Amino acid sequence: xxxxxxxxxxxxxxxxxxxxxxxxxxxxxxxxxxxxxxxxxxxxxxxxxxxxxxxxxxxxxxxxxxxxxxxxxxxxxxxxxxxxxxxxxxxxxxxxxxxxxxxxxxxxxxxxxxxxxxxxxxxxxxxxxxxxxxxxxxxxxxxxxxxxxxxxxxxxxxxxxxxxxxxxxxxxxxxxxxxxxxxxxxxxxxxxxxxxxxxxxxxxxxxxxxxxxxxxxxxxxxxxxxxxxxxxxxxxxxxxxxxxxxxxxxxxxxxxxxxxxxxxxxxxxxxxxxxxxxxxxxxxxxxxxxxxxxxxxxxxxxxxxxxxxxxxxxxxxxxxxxxxxxxxxxxxxxxxxxxxxxxxxxxxxxxxxxxxxxxxxxxxxxxxxxxxxxxxxxxx
Length: 380
Known about the structure:
This protein has two domains: 2-128, no CATH class; 221-371, Heat Shock Protein 90. Helix content is 67%, strand content 13%. The protein contains nine helices and seven strands; from the N terminus they run H-H-H-H-H-E-H-E-E-H-E-E-H-H-E-E. Strands 1, 2, 3, 4, 5, 6 and 7 form a seven-stranded mixed beta sheet that branches.
C-alpha cells in the first residue's frame, strides 16, 4: 500500500512539474523567440507533454483502476503499460526535451553575445561622445579666448587711434581759423569730415569690443524719451539738410512721460539708426516716432521707430539684420546695427526691421524701462 501511494505521489509530482514547465516556457515564449530559438519551444513542449501524459495515465490507472477493473487487473494493466511504454516514452520525451534545450542554450548564447556586442558598442559610443564633448569644450574655450584676445586687441587699437585722430581734428580746427583760400578751405573741410568719420568708426569698434566682452554696464537715470529723441534728431538735422532730406520727430504718444534707464545708450541706439537711415536715403524723408506700451505697473516698453524712403534692403540683408548682433563683412547692417542689437538686449528689448527694396526701411528698437515712481503723499 505504501509503495502504491509513493508511486502515485511521484506520478502526480512529475506530471505537475511537466505542466508547470510547459506553462513557464510559453510565458517566456517572446524571450525564446528573441533569442532565435523558436524551434526549441515546440520540441521541449512535446517532450514535457509526453512525460505528463505518461505519468498522468499511470497515476489514473493506479488510483482509479482498482475501482474499475479490480486490484489484480489494474496492477496488470499498469505493469504492462509501464513495460511497453516507459522506455520508449522516456527516450522520445527526453530526446525532444534535450534537443529543444540545446537549441535554447545556443539561442541564449547568441543573445548574450549580441548583448555583449551592444554593450561594447555602447561603451565605445559613450567614449567617443565623451571625447567629442571634451573637444567641443576645448574648442569653445579656444573660441572664447580668441574672441577675448580679439576684443582686447581692438580696444587697444581703438585707444591708440583715437589720440592721433583727435590731434588731427584739433589741428584742422585751428587751421580753419587762419586765412585760407577757398580751395584750401574745401580740402580742409573734407579732411575734418574724414577724420570725424574715422573717429566715429574707431569709437564704434571700441564700443562693440566692450559689448562683446560684456564690459558695458547700464546706468540708471530719470529721463524723458521724448527729449532724448528730439535731441538725437536735432543732431542729425544739418546732415539731413545737406542731402535735401526731410527729418521729422513724432513723440505725441509719449508726451512728457519720464522713465528710468540709460539715456546715453538710448541716444546711441537712435544715433546709429538715424545715421543708417540718412546714409541709405538719397532723397525723400525720414520720420522718427516714439510710442510706449505698458508692461506692468512698474515697467513700460518704449518703441523708437526710424522710417525712411531710401533704397531699402534685399531679402538676404533683411533676414540677416533681423537675426541679431551678427556682423558680417560687407553686410549693410555693419558695426552700428550690431551695437544697436547688443544694447537693445542689454535693455531687455530687441530690434526689428521691415523693408522693401527701393521703397524704404523701418527700424524699430523696443526697449524696456522702469516707470517713474509716483511721488509719496506728504502728511501735513
